[in-house]
Amino acid sequence: MTGDPFGGMPLRGRVAFGRRPSQQQGAQLGDGLTPEHRRRLTVCMSVSLSIVVRERQEAVVLPPQAIRTENGQHVACMRDGARFASRPVTLGITLPEGVEIHEGISPGDAIVLRE
């Protein structure tokens, strides 16, 4: 979270949404909020948020053109020495950087992009 009262220092926190109107909703700021930040905050102040839904440090992400469907199954074309082979993959979420791969590809595998 960034905004004018934070002086360019991003803060970490969490956003909670209730399923019923009686449950608490709103943003909870991280422990990095100083007394000076608290003094500068006002009701209805604008802030910029980046919401991380989940984080996987070792995720494999491929460009969308590396994934195709063969016989109803998602596959990626792999280079195996001098050969090329389609390998089944299990897709995760789609990110601005590409498609997350849960299974079927490891970091360092040589992927062939389709034309």
UniProtKB/TrEMBL annotation:
Pfam families assigned to the protein according to its UniProt record, in alphabetical order: CzcB_C
InterPro entries: CzcB_C
Annotated ranges, domain CzcB-like C-terminal circularly permuted SH3-like: 60-113
Segments for region (Disordered): 1-34
Stated name of the protein: CzcB-like C-terminal circularly permuted SH3-like domain-containing protein
Origin species: Sabulicella glaciei
Source species taxonomy: Bacteria, Pseudomonadati, Pseudomonadota, Alphaproteobacteria, Acetobacterales
